[in-house]
Protein backbone atom coordinates (compact mmCIF):
# COMPACT_ATOMS: atom_id res chain seq x y z
CA UNK A 1 0.00 0.00 0.00
CA UNK A 2 1.36 3.38 -0.98
CA UNK A 3 1.92 5.97 1.70
CA UNK A 4 -0.96 8.48 1.60
CA UNK A 5 1.40 11.43 2.04
CA UNK A 6 3.37 10.28 -1.03
CA UNK A 7 0.19 9.98 -3.08
CA UNK A 8 -0.84 13.49 -2.07
CA UNK A 9 2.61 14.82 -2.92
CA UNK A 10 2.88 13.03 -6.28
CA UNK A 11 -0.56 14.29 -7.31
CA UNK A 12 0.15 17.77 -5.98
CA UNK A 13 -3.18 17.75 -4.13
CA UNK A 14 -2.19 19.16 -0.75
CA UNK A 15 -3.45 22.61 -1.75
CA UNK A 16 -6.76 21.44 -3.14
CA UNK A 17 -7.55 19.34 -0.05
CA UNK A 18 -6.84 22.35 2.16
CA UNK A 19 -8.92 24.65 -0.06
CA UNK A 20 -11.84 22.21 -0.09
CA UNK A 21 -11.69 21.90 3.70
CA UNK A 22 -12.02 25.66 4.14
CA UNK A 23 -14.50 26.25 1.28
CA UNK A 24 -16.92 23.56 2.33
CA UNK A 25 -16.40 24.19 6.03
CA UNK A 26 -17.35 27.78 5.34
CA UNK A 27 -20.33 26.52 3.34
CA UNK A 28 -21.47 24.46 6.29
CA UNK A 29 -21.08 27.27 8.81
CA UNK A 30 -22.92 29.80 6.60
CA UNK A 31 -25.73 27.38 5.74
CA UNK A 32 -26.25 26.74 9.44
CA UNK A 33 -26.15 30.48 10.18
CA UNK A 34 -28.95 30.95 7.66
CA UNK A 35 -30.92 28.10 9.15
CA UNK A 36 -30.47 29.37 12.72
CA UNK A 37 -31.49 32.86 11.62
CA UNK A 38 -34.65 31.34 10.16
CA UNK A 39 -35.42 29.57 13.45
CA UNK A 40 -34.62 32.71 15.43
CA UNK A 41 -36.88 34.90 13.32
CA UNK A 42 -39.54 32.17 13.14
CA UNK A 43 -40.36 32.49 16.80
CA UNK A 44 -41.15 29.45 18.91
CA UNK A 45 -39.45 26.67 16.97
CA UNK A 46 -39.05 23.51 19.12
CA UNK A 47 -35.40 22.48 19.62
CA UNK A 48 -36.10 18.90 18.46
CA UNK A 49 -37.45 20.21 15.14
CA UNK A 50 -34.46 22.54 14.81
CA UNK A 51 -32.06 19.62 15.42
CA UNK A 52 -33.80 17.47 12.80
CA UNK A 53 -33.78 20.28 10.25
CA UNK A 54 -30.13 21.12 10.99
CA UNK A 55 -29.08 17.47 10.76
CA UNK A 56 -30.94 17.20 7.47
CA UNK A 57 -29.01 20.17 6.11
CA UNK A 58 -25.71 18.76 7.48
CA UNK A 59 -26.28 15.38 5.81
CA UNK A 60 -27.26 17.05 2.55
CA UNK A 61 -24.00 19.06 2.69
CA UNK A 62 -22.03 15.85 3.39
CA UNK A 63 -23.53 14.06 0.40
CA UNK A 64 -23.39 17.05 -1.91
CA UNK A 65 -19.81 17.93 -0.90
CA UNK A 66 -18.41 14.43 -1.22
CA UNK A 67 -20.16 13.42 -4.44
CA UNK A 68 -19.50 16.67 -6.29
CA UNK A 69 -15.83 16.62 -5.26
CA UNK A 70 -15.45 12.96 -6.21
CA UNK A 71 -16.99 13.45 -9.65
CA UNK A 72 -14.96 16.57 -10.48
CA UNK A 73 -11.68 15.30 -8.99
CA UNK A 74 -11.89 11.89 -10.69
CA UNK A 75 -12.46 13.57 -14.04
CA UNK A 76 -9.54 15.93 -13.43
CA UNK A 77 -7.17 13.13 -12.30
CA UNK A 78 -8.26 10.93 -15.21
CA UNK A 79 -7.35 13.72 -17.62
CA UNK A 80 -3.99 14.27 -15.90
CA UNK A 81 -3.04 10.58 -15.91
CA UNK A 82 -3.98 10.23 -19.57
CA UNK A 83 -1.79 13.21 -20.47
CA UNK A 84 1.07 11.77 -18.42
CA UNK A 85 0.64 8.33 -20.01
CA UNK A 86 0.75 9.94 -23.40
CA UNK A 87 3.97 11.84 -22.48
CA UNK A 88 5.54 8.67 -21.03
CA UNK A 89 4.15 6.37 -23.75
CA UNK A 90 3.46 3.91 -20.89
CA UNK A 91 0.50 2.50 -19.02
CA UNK A 92 0.75 4.06 -15.54
CA UNK A 93 -2.28 2.36 -13.98
CA UNK A 94 -0.12 0.20 -11.67
CA UNK A 95 2.29 2.97 -10.77
CA UNK A 96 2.33 5.49 -7.94
CA UNK A 97 0.60 7.94 -10.30
CA UNK A 98 -2.15 5.47 -11.20
CA UNK A 99 -2.78 4.79 -7.51
CA UNK A 100 -2.85 8.52 -6.79
CA UNK A 101 -5.38 9.14 -9.56
CA UNK A 102 -7.72 6.58 -7.97
CA UNK A 103 -7.19 7.32 -4.25
CA UNK A 104 -6.80 11.12 -4.21
CA UNK A 105 -10.36 11.81 -5.51
CA UNK A 106 -11.68 9.64 -2.65
CA UNK A 107 -9.60 11.56 -0.13
CA UNK A 108 -10.66 14.93 -1.52
CA UNK A 109 -14.31 13.78 -1.51
CA UNK A 110 -13.97 12.69 2.11
CA UNK A 111 -12.53 16.05 3.16
CA UNK A 112 -15.10 17.95 1.11
CA UNK A 113 -17.96 16.00 2.65
CA UNK A 114 -16.77 15.67 6.23
CA UNK A 115 -15.66 19.27 6.76
CA UNK A 116 -19.19 20.79 6.45
CA UNK A 117 -20.67 17.91 8.46
CA UNK A 118 -18.17 18.38 11.29
CA UNK A 119 -18.68 22.14 11.32
CA UNK A 120 -22.46 21.77 11.28
CA UNK A 121 -22.29 19.41 14.27
CA UNK A 122 -19.99 21.83 16.12
CA UNK A 123 -22.17 24.89 15.58
CA UNK A 124 -25.15 22.88 16.80
CA UNK A 125 -23.52 22.63 20.26
CA UNK A 126 -26.07 24.94 21.96
CA UNK A 127 -28.85 22.71 20.59
CA UNK A 128 -27.10 19.59 21.90
CA UNK A 129 -26.71 21.27 25.29
CA UNK A 130 -30.35 22.35 25.35
CA UNK A 131 -31.63 18.88 24.53
CA UNK A 132 -29.42 17.28 27.17
CA UNK A 133 -30.89 19.53 29.85
CA UNK A 134 -28.26 22.29 30.06
CA UNK A 135 -30.33 25.48 29.94
CA UNK A 136 -28.59 28.41 28.27
CA UNK A 137 -29.65 31.95 29.13
CA UNK A 138 -31.60 33.69 26.37
CA UNK A 139 -32.57 32.34 22.97
CA UNK A 140 -30.84 29.08 22.04
CA UNK A 141 -30.79 30.02 18.34
CA UNK A 142 -29.00 33.27 19.14
CA UNK A 143 -26.36 31.12 20.85
CA UNK A 144 -26.16 28.95 17.73
CA UNK A 145 -25.67 32.03 15.54
CA UNK A 146 -22.93 33.21 17.91
CA UNK A 147 -21.29 29.77 17.73
CA UNK A 148 -21.41 29.84 13.93
CA UNK A 149 -19.79 33.28 13.95
CA UNK A 150 -16.99 31.96 16.17
CA UNK A 151 -16.38 28.99 13.85
CA UNK A 152 -16.36 31.28 10.80
CA UNK A 153 -13.84 33.51 12.57
CA UNK A 154 -11.64 30.49 13.33
CA UNK A 155 -11.81 29.42 9.66
CA UNK A 156 -10.64 32.92 8.78
CA UNK A 157 -7.76 32.52 11.24
CA UNK A 158 -6.83 29.20 9.62
CA UNK A 159 -6.81 30.90 6.20
CA UNK A 160 -4.33 33.46 7.54
CA UNK A 161 -1.84 30.64 8.25
CA UNK A 162 -1.95 29.79 4.53
CA UNK A 163 -2.07 33.30 3.06
CA UNK A 164 0.31 34.76 5.71
CA UNK A 165 -2.17 37.63 6.04
CA UNK A 166 -2.61 39.19 9.50
CA UNK A 167 -4.69 36.73 11.54
CA UNK A 168 -7.07 39.32 12.92
CA UNK A 169 -7.76 40.83 9.49
CA UNK A 170 -8.34 37.40 7.97
CA UNK A 171 -10.66 36.42 10.82
CA UNK A 172 -12.67 39.63 10.54
CA UNK A 173 -12.92 39.31 6.75
CA UNK A 174 -14.55 35.90 7.22
CA UNK A 175 -16.77 37.31 9.94
CA UNK A 176 -17.83 40.16 7.65
CA UNK A 177 -19.21 37.62 5.16
CA UNK A 178 -21.28 36.06 7.96
CA UNK A 179 -22.42 39.56 8.95
CA UNK A 180 -23.53 40.33 5.40
CA UNK A 181 -25.43 37.02 5.27
CA UNK A 182 -27.23 37.83 8.51
CA UNK A 183 -27.94 41.35 7.22
CA UNK A 184 -29.47 40.07 3.97
CA UNK A 185 -31.64 37.58 5.90
CA UNK A 186 -32.85 40.36 8.20
CA UNK A 187 -33.56 42.54 5.17
CA UNK A 188 -35.56 39.78 3.47
CA UNK A 189 -37.44 39.16 6.72
CA UNK A 190 -38.40 42.83 7.03
CA UNK A 191 -40.48 42.70 3.82
CA UNK B 1 27.84 -17.52 -11.52
CA UNK B 2 27.85 -14.00 -12.92
CA UNK B 3 26.70 -11.19 -10.64
CA UNK B 4 25.70 -7.74 -11.87
CA UNK B 5 27.49 -5.18 -9.72
CA UNK B 6 26.75 -1.91 -11.47
CA UNK B 7 24.12 -0.69 -13.95
CA UNK B 8 23.72 2.63 -15.70
CA UNK B 9 20.17 3.10 -17.00
CA UNK B 10 18.60 5.75 -19.19
CA UNK B 11 15.19 6.29 -17.57
CA UNK B 12 12.17 8.46 -18.36
CA UNK B 13 10.13 9.55 -15.32
CA UNK B 14 7.21 11.92 -14.68
CA UNK B 15 8.21 15.30 -13.17
CA UNK B 16 6.65 14.31 -9.83
CA UNK B 17 8.01 12.95 -7.56
CA UNK B 18 11.14 15.12 -7.82
CA UNK B 19 14.49 13.31 -8.06
CA UNK B 20 15.16 13.57 -4.33
CA UNK B 21 11.87 11.85 -3.46
CA UNK B 22 12.24 9.51 -6.41
CA UNK B 23 15.73 8.38 -5.40
CA UNK B 24 14.78 7.99 -1.74
CA UNK B 25 11.68 5.97 -2.61
CA UNK B 26 13.66 3.80 -5.02
CA UNK B 27 16.38 3.22 -2.44
CA UNK B 28 13.77 2.27 0.19
CA UNK B 29 12.62 -0.43 -2.22
CA UNK B 30 16.16 -1.51 -3.12
CA UNK B 31 17.94 -1.73 0.22
CA UNK B 32 21.69 -2.22 0.12
CA UNK B 33 21.98 -0.66 -3.34
CA UNK B 34 23.84 2.60 -3.89
CA UNK B 35 21.88 4.82 -6.25
CA UNK B 36 22.92 7.94 -8.12
CA UNK B 37 20.40 9.87 -10.23
CA UNK B 38 21.36 12.56 -12.69
CA UNK B 39 18.89 14.70 -14.65
CA UNK B 40 19.74 14.71 -18.35
CA UNK B 41 16.74 16.62 -19.68
CA UNK B 42 13.44 18.12 -18.59
CA UNK B 43 10.23 18.20 -20.60
CA UNK B 44 6.80 19.70 -19.79
CA UNK B 45 5.66 16.57 -17.94
CA UNK B 46 8.68 14.26 -17.87
CA UNK B 47 12.35 14.08 -16.95
CA UNK B 48 15.07 12.10 -18.68
CA UNK B 49 17.41 10.77 -16.00
CA UNK B 50 20.44 8.53 -15.73
CA UNK B 51 20.19 6.09 -12.85
CA UNK B 52 23.39 4.46 -11.65
CA UNK B 53 22.96 1.50 -9.32
CA UNK B 54 25.75 -0.28 -7.49
CA UNK B 55 25.54 -3.34 -5.26
CA UNK B 56 23.87 -6.71 -5.55
CA UNK B 57 21.61 -6.03 -8.51
CA UNK B 58 18.67 -7.93 -9.96
CA UNK B 59 17.49 -6.28 -13.17
CA UNK B 60 13.90 -7.59 -13.00
CA UNK B 61 13.45 -6.19 -9.48
CA UNK B 62 14.92 -2.82 -10.47
CA UNK B 63 12.68 -2.64 -13.54
CA UNK B 64 9.58 -3.50 -11.46
CA UNK B 65 10.40 -0.86 -8.83
CA UNK B 66 11.05 1.82 -11.45
CA UNK B 67 7.75 0.96 -13.14
CA UNK B 68 5.95 1.19 -9.79
CA UNK B 69 7.32 4.72 -9.42
CA UNK B 70 5.91 5.59 -12.84
CA UNK B 71 9.28 5.51 -14.63
CA UNK B 72 10.35 3.44 -17.61
CA UNK B 73 13.76 2.20 -18.72
CA UNK B 74 14.70 3.47 -22.15
CA UNK B 75 18.04 1.74 -22.40
CA UNK B 76 20.75 -0.02 -20.43
CA UNK B 77 23.80 2.14 -21.03
CA UNK B 78 26.46 0.42 -18.91
CA UNK B 79 26.75 -2.96 -17.25
CA UNK B 80 29.43 -4.14 -14.82
CA UNK B 81 29.50 -7.78 -13.85
CA UNK B 82 31.69 -10.05 -11.72
CA UNK B 83 32.24 -13.77 -11.97
CA UNK B 84 31.80 -15.49 -8.62
CA UNK B 85 33.01 -19.06 -8.08
CA UNK B 86 30.02 -21.26 -7.23
CA UNK B 87 30.13 -23.07 -3.92
CA UNK B 88 29.00 -26.69 -3.36
CA UNK B 89 25.81 -25.53 -1.64
CA UNK B 90 24.66 -23.65 -4.78
CA UNK B 91 21.53 -25.18 -6.30
CA UNK B 92 23.17 -24.99 -9.73
CA UNK B 93 25.86 -27.54 -8.74
Description:
By secondary structure, chain A is mostly helical. Chain A has one domain (4-186). In chain A, 84% of the residues lie in helices and 0% in strands. In chain A, helix 1 packs across helix 4 and helix 2 (14-42) runs parallel beside helix 7 (167-190). In chain A, 38% of the residues are buried. The mean pLDDT of chain A is 91. Chain B is of the alpha+beta class and 93 residues long. Chain B has one domain (2-83): MTH889-like domain (Alpha-Beta Plaits), CATH 3.30.70.1340. Helix content of chain B is 23%, strand content 49%. Chain B has helices spanning 19-29, 59-68; strands at residues 2-14, 34-42, 46-57, 72-83. The longest helix of chain B has 11 residues, at 19-29. Chain B is elongated and about 50 Å long. The chains are: A mainly alpha (191), B alpha+beta (93). Chain A binds chain B through residues 6, 9-12, 83-84, 87-90, 92, 94-98, and chain B through 12, 14, 16-17, 21, 25, 43-46, 67-70, 72.
Q: What percentage of residues of chain A falls in helices of 4 or more residues? A: over 70%
Which CATH class of chain B? Answer: Alpha Beta
Distance, first to last CA of chain B: 11 Å
Oligomer: heterodimer
Unreliable spans of chain B are: none
Number of H- or I-type helical stretches of chain A = 7
The biggest beta sheet of chain B is recorded as:
4 strands, antiparallel
Cα(first) to Cα(last) distance of chain A is 59 Å
SSE-based structural type of chain A: mainly alpha
Amino acid sequence: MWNLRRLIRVSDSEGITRRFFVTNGFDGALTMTGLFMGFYLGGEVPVTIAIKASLGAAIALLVSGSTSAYISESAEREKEIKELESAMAEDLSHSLHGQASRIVPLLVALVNGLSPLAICLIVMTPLWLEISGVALPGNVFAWCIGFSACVIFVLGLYLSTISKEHWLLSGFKALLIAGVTVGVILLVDSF
Amino acid sequence: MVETTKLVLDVLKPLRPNILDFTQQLNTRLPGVEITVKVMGVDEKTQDITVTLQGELHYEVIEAELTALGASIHSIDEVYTRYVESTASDPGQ
